[in-house]
Design a protein that fits this description.
The chain has about 375 residues and is mainly α. The protein folds into two domains: about 40 residues; about 270 residues, Rhopdopsin 7-helix transmembrane proteins, CATH 1.20.1070.10. It contains eleven helices and two strands, in the order H-H-H-H-H-H-E-E-H-H-H-H-H. The chain has a two-stranded antiparallel sheet. A hairpin with a 4-residue loop joins strand 1 and strand 2. The protein starts with 6 loop residues before the first helix and ends with a helix.
């Protein structure tokens, strides 16, 4: 295990060694002096080693190893999500297009966050520049806001479809979902645009700081309200959708009317409800720390910042867990994932067989050319 030792650690230990040498020359109780020396050296060393500043540095250094893994994992998972959810059988469900929008927003967000976290671990923060200070928070926060908005739209769609078992055509579903996604992205972009103006670059410290005036505090307060309302709305819609779907199924069963894609409706409802619960659990800690730093200036300590970056890791795992939830709860998703793996294996086998046969065919072609020339 690698331990980062500061220069003043070495200075303290060298001075204590010199002090011990002097004491040993003028003392008859050498064992007692050496024991006191060891205890004092260890106490000073470990007190400084586990100081908040060092903890923040250790968390930042962990970005170098964790972020590339999360980057590759999240991108691979959501590319698979887009490939599976784009199948023809699922086009009639507008909810699927919102899941696709969620995956697209996650890919864009991860592509921006992973390099930023790695650069921060190297003490290179592009937000601490005159231009980056005004666009950093808008760019970084746009992805999570859009992803959460896609889950809210999916929850509204599930609630609406739970009372209407009749499926719409895939063209209508696609047109409806595209319209709502475009409107939501425009609204979120307009809402987040003040983040370009509530931060300023301090030339004396070289840091990007937040204004402490009243408009900035009001805007941050609206973000706090939205961060509370959005999960609440998602959870309530998920519960109402489950209740509504159960009532519709019972009513149709009494009337002896078959409900098309009843199993698909149930699976989509379960997937969405559990996904929203996991999303709330994994993203709430970062929101709490973020608003603490925004409203209470005394919480801007190195230890709190270290905890904030740990919660960033936790919120990123939300984009990984969704894949395993889909496999666990959706039989249609599992079937298409198995088909995708089967196609991948078959393609690999074809490529290998082609590479194996290609040298033989090349040799045969050269032999025929030589014979024809002769």
């Amino acid at each position: 295990m690698f331990i980062h030792v500061h220069k003043h650690h070495i200075t303290v230990i060298i001075s204590l060694v010199f002090f011990l040498h002097v004491k040993l020359l003028h003392s008859n109780h050498r064992h007692e002096v050496s024991l006191n020396f060891v205890c004092s050296a260890l106490r000073i060393f470990f007190q400084d080693f586990y100081s908040p500043t060092t903890l923040l540095e250790r968390v930042l250094k962990a970005n170098i190893y964790i972020e590339p893994v999360l980057f590759i994992l999240i991108l691979s998972i959501h590319i698979i999500n887009i490939r599976i959810l784009s199948s023809r059988e699922l086009r009639a469900f507008p909810c699927i297009y919102y899941f696709l929008g969620y995956s697209a927003a996650t890919i864009v967000y991860t592509s921006l966050l992973a390099p930023t976290q790695i650069l921060r671990a190297l003490f290179i923060g592009w937000e601490n520049t005159p231009v980056g200070c005004h666009i950093y928070f808008f760019v970084i926060f746009l992805g999570p806001y859009v992803a959460r908005a896609m889950l809210i739209l999916a929850a509204f769609d599930r609630y609406y479809c739970s009372s209407q078992p009749r499926l719409m055509s895939w063209k209508q579903a696609k047109r409806k979902a595209r319209k709502y996604i475009l409107i939501m992205v425009i609204i979120i972009s307009i809402y987040l645009s003040p983040m370009c103006f509530i931060y300023y670059f301090d030339t004396t410290t070289g840091l990007c700081l937040q204004y402490r005036n009243l408009p900035a505090k009001i805007y941050i307060f609206t973000q706090a309200i939205l961060s509370i309302c959005a999960p609440t709305v998602m959870f309530i819609l998920g519960i109402l959708t489950s209740i509504n779907t159960h009532r519709v199924i019972l009513r149709l069963a009494q009337q002896k009317v078959s409900m098309p894609s009843r199993l698909m409706h149930r699976q989509l409802n379960r997937m969405l409800l559990l996904h929203m619960c996991v999303h709330i659990i994994l993203t709430t800690p970062f929101g709490v720390i973020y608003f603490m730093n925004a409203f209470i200036e005394s919480t801007r300590t190195p230890s709190i910042f270290a905890l904030r970056y740990v919660f960033v890791f936790l919120s990123q795992t939300d984009y990984v867990v969704s894949f395993f939830l889909y496999i666990l709860l959706g039989s249609f998703y599992r079937q298409r994932f198995c088909k995708l793996l089967k196609c991948f294996r078959e393609n690999r086998y074809r490529i290998r067989s082609f590479q194996y046969q290609q040298p033989r065919s090349t040799k045969k072609f050269i032999r025929t050319v030589v014979l024809e020339t002769l």
